[in-house]
Every structure is written in structure tokens, then in C-alpha cells.
Amino acid sequence: MRSEAVTRVKLVFTLFDADGNGALEAADFTLMSDRVAAAVPEADEARSQAMRAGFRHYWETLARELDTDRDGRITYEEFQACVLSPERFSGAVDAFAAGFARFGDVDGSGTVTRPVFIGMMRGVGFELPNIEALFNAFAPDAADRIRVDVWEAEIKNYYAADKGGVPADLLAAVPSA
């Protein structure tokens, strides 16, 4: 596994632990999807439901595959298998990536504006300088929009154990002063 993937998985575990209790639980994914939905109030109900379903499906897959002691909680040690065995999670990651990225396409144009992108990513818990760096890496168009399909693909890269030197690494980078 590449060191970049290890860094990304540590960060995403911390962010997914939305209540900060040191373990992932179903309530964390509900809380995070609520935060993302609140960040984009202009999104229609269908997109909101798809985004929430992606979070829910991701949690259910993690719980089924990783909660080895079946206590309804996933520790960091259990979570590491998500990156170590990506074939077990590709369907859940694909659904999550699609629902999440497409949620930001509030006008159906196939693109996401910078303010919506920032709001969603802040809802997850990423740091603003890292969010801005990632958005810029996606080569926004003249209207300051990025393509949904590009963002969706990069969400998948975020979870890839064999990927490094990809824009997703910017989310786990230490912001420059």
C-alpha cells in the first residue's frame, strides 16, 4: 500500500468519526450526510436522497465487512481493511462517489460550482486550503465549475491503495502557510 493511501485512510477515518468518539457508527454517517445536505440547501430531494443513500450504503458495507466483533462500531484497526482489500468495497465506494459528487450538481449541468463544492467538503470536515487546492486541481472552467464525473473519479482514487500522486492526496496534505 502506498504511503499516500495510508495518510488518506487515516484522515477519512477521523472525518467519518463525525461525533469524535474514536469509532465509526451508523450515526456518524447520518450526521455527516445531514451536514452535507445542510451545506447545499438548493439541492433537490432526489439528489439529497441519493447522497444519503450513498452514505448509508457505505456504512452498511463497512459494518458488514469490517465490524469483526459485531458491536456496531468500527475501530481504526478494523477500518484499515477498507484500503487493504479494495475489491471488497468497490461497489460501496462507487455508490458513495456517485451519490456524493452528483449531489453537488444542483442545476443538472454535469458540473459543480466552487461554493457548493466547498460547502459539501466542509460538511465532511476537510480543511478549506485543502478543499481549494483540490478544486483548483480539477481545472475549473471559466464559470468556476468542475465536472461531476471528474470529481466522482477522484473520490474513487481517494480510496485506492495503489494510487499516489493524485489530486485526492491534496485533501490529506498539510496546508502550506
Major β-sheet annotation: 2 strands, antiparallel
Radius of gyration: 15 Å
Q: Work out the strand percent.
A: under 5%
The SS-based structural class is mainly alpha
> What are the secondary-structure elements, in order, as H or E?
HHHHHHEHHEH
> Spans of 5+ residues with little confidence (pLDDT < 50)?
none
Query: How are the strands of the largest sheet arranged?
Result: 1-2
Number of helices: 9
Shape: globular
Extended strand count: 2
Q: Level of helix content? A: 55-70%
Q: Report how far apart the termini are.
A: 29 Å
Can you give the mean pLDDT?
Answer: 88
Descriptive report:
- The relative contact order is 0.17.
- The longest helix has 22 residues, at 45-66.
- The protein has helices at 3-16, 26-39, 45-66, 76-79, 81-84, 90-103, 114-124, 128-137, 148-158, and strands at residues 111-113, 145-147.
- A two-stranded antiparallel sheet has the order 1-2.
- The protein is globular.
- The protein is mainly α and 177 residues long.
- The mean pLDDT is 88.
